[in-house]
Design a protein that fits this description.
The protein has 582 residues and is an alpha/beta fold. It has 20 helices and 20 strands. 51% of the residues are buried. Bound molecules: iron/sulfur cluster.
């Protein structure tokens, strides 16, 4: 591979195969950390490697839900190729250098989102320096950036299905059935200043039935990455296949709940209803956490949703009167209320900066989102991302302010627009999005208490349900309600003792727990609550002192890698950062 040749861009399948086939030694890696700091590679303090703290519970301080999610794409690839493969997740820069200087690899694959382009650029340089013979493959959302071939020194840029691509590149049959890796949905979960223990059964498993979404909203980069409108990549087409995967995860990871990492899980109706049949037949009291669009959700009866174990939904609301087909005719206010009354916790997602938003009407838009009182609310800036129809629209209209993604590290949807908004003056959006999060927190309080409130509602509604399978799920969901969760609400109520609105909301939830669980809860709440109040205060102090949260590094090998024999006399053991940003 020569550095003078531009990388080959391909979708799903390469035009060539690697000469070593399945004997090639593969390293798959995410970009290096630390992530929650400002540096010249594109890390940003405000853009940590935490989905919730980054864009959902951003202003909730010590109440914020903190957790990390693995790089599922490269885990799937590793599980589905025969070549000896090492997977490095969340390495530090030093750890990445150590990996490529002490071991020999024929192929090195890097997955990344667009804001991390600076890291990928640097990793490619390091690979050329330490492993000049290795083939460099780039995947993930970054692959959708049209100018990437000119920006980085790689050999292949892969858009779409990386499993199929890698199998083809290694000369392995691309159409073999997919093996699902055993993935826990999160690690390092922390809130109220306490890191939760990761005992078997406490964490959901991640299931990836399909990727992409055929609905094809104009801004949706995931949909665009896997083909756009009308397209998706289906790994498990039938309810039977999916049920087998879930049974394996249930047994191996000892889980009862599943995070269905599918952009629109319920859209595949036949598969979902067959899964329901099998859950009934085999008496499974599983909980399913799903992404869904409102209209798809409305096409199921409440009985079906409850029986299928739908207990948490992530739903795009986008904005009041937004014109997306997935919302047409849906009254999301009523829908959320209805779901919550059946114990379904909702993460609503709203966009700040839709075409119709102005400085004059943005407060109405924010108030409308807040009115939903969902358990969590994500706010994102309306941001064209390369590969989407929205990006094309702004390119065609010459309204992009950063068409070459030179400021990609700050274009993560939480800071600023990368285009000229028709009504919002440049820079005003930065405060608007914080205003939205703040309003939601001020009116609805900590998400952790909202989750407890709705879980309790579900428990009360279904604890006497005639079907034991359904009763078991709600009992399982409500475990800890009379002790730890009661204590959490007690601590939150004390925290907001001077805030009339939130104090009364916390009090209502606590009284509800007391009346449902009686003396046990009344005794446990203040005992545990006093402890949690102290951990809350300690967390607040930690945050004020600038504490940030970083994921641990994972290194998982399917075979022992070969030692790197090339003399590294020209290779410094450690590469200094390029510079330090603000
Ligand atoms: S419905 Fe959701 S996942 Fe599907 S295209 Fe629209 S935003 Fe993307």
């Amino acid at each position: 591979m020569t550095t003078a040749t531009l990388p080959q861009v391909s979708t799903h399948a390469p035009s060539i195969t690697h000469p070593l086939g399945s004997k090639a030694r593969v390293l798959l890696t995410g970009v290096f950390g630390p992530y929650a700091q400002n540096d010249a590679f594109g890390s940003r303090t405000m853009n940590p490697m935490e989905l919730y703290h980054n864009q959902v519970t951003r202003v909730q301080g010590p109440f914020s839900l903190r957790m990390f999610h693995r790089s599922w794409g490269i885990m799937l690839i590793q599980a589905n190729i025969a070549a000896p493969t090492t997977l490095l997740d969340f390495p530090t820069l030093d750890r990445f250098i150590q990996q490529i200087t002490e071991n020999h690899y024929d192929i090195i694959g890097i997955t990344s989102i667009i804001p991390n382009i600076g890291k990928v650029e640097h990793m490619c340089k390091l690979i050329r320096q330490h492993q000049p013979e290795a083939t460099i493959v780039i995947g993930g959302h970054l692959a959708n950036f049209g100018e990437l071939p000119e920006r980085i020194d790689a050999d292949h840029i892969v858009r779409g299905d990386g499993i199929r691509w890698f199998r083809s590149f290694l000369g392995e049959p691309a159409d073999q059935p997919i093996k699902h890796p055993r993935i826990l949905s999160a690690f390092g979960t922390r809130s109220l200043g306490v890191t939760l223990p990761e005992k078997p059964g406490d964490v959901a498993a991640t299931v990836i039935p399909s990727v992409g979404c055929p609905v094809g909203c104009n801004f949706c980069s995931t949909s665009a990455m896997f083909g756009g409108k009308g397209k998706s990549v289906i790994f498990f087409d039938s309810g039977d296949e999916l049920f087998d995967v879930m049974c394996d995860l249930e047994k191996s990871l000892q889980v009862q709940s599943f995070f269905m990492m599918d952009e629109n899980f319920l859209l595949h109706r036949k598969r979902a209803l067959r899964l329901l049949e099998l859950m009934r037949e085999h008496n499974k009291s599983w909980s399913l956490y799903v992404f869904t669009s409102a209209n798809v959700l409305r096409s199921y009866t409440t009985e079906q949703l409850v029986a299928l174990g739908i207990s948490w939904v992530w739903m795009g609301m986008e904005g009041k009167n937004s014109q997306y087909a997935k919302l047409s005719g849906a009254n999301t206010l009523e829908l959320v209320k209805h779901l919550q009354s059946h114990g379904v916790r909702v993460l609503g997602s709203s966009i700040i900066g839709l075409e119709e938003h102005t400085p004059e009407n943005i407060d109405d838009a924010i108030d409308y989102s807040v009115l939903h009182d969902t358990e969590f609310h994500q706010f994102m800036l309306y941001t064209p991302i390369p590969g989407t129809m929205l990006w094309k629209h702004h390119t065609d209209n010459d309204t992009l302010t950063d068409p070459h993604c030179l400021e990609a590290a700050d274009t993560h949807g939480q800071l600023k627009f990368n285009y000229k908004h028709p009504h919002i003056p440049a820079g005003a959006e930065t405060e608007m999005i914080v205003r939205a999060f703040t309003r939601d927190f001020q009116v609805n309080g900590p998400s952790v208490v909202r989750v407890i409130r709705t879980t309790l509602r579900g428990y009360k509604q279904y604890r006497n349900h005639p079907d034991a399978r359904i009763r078991r799920r709600f009992e399982y969901d409500a475990r800890g309600m009379a002790t730890t969760l009661a204590g959490a609400v007690w601590a939150c109520r004390k925290w907001f003792k001077n805030d009339t609105l939130l104090h009364s909301k916390m009090n209502a939830v606590l009284q509800d727990i007391y009346s449902t669980f009686g003396l046990k809860a009344r005794l446990a709440a203040p005992l545990i609550g006093r402890y949690l109040f102290r951990t809350l205060k300690a967390e607040r102090a930690r945050l004020a002192a600038g504490w940030t949260y970083e994921p641990k590094t994972f290194c998982e090998m399917t075979h022992q890698p070969a030692a790197h024999t090339r003399p590294a006399a020209d290779a410094p053991a450690r590469i200094a950062p390029l510079a330090t940003a603000s």
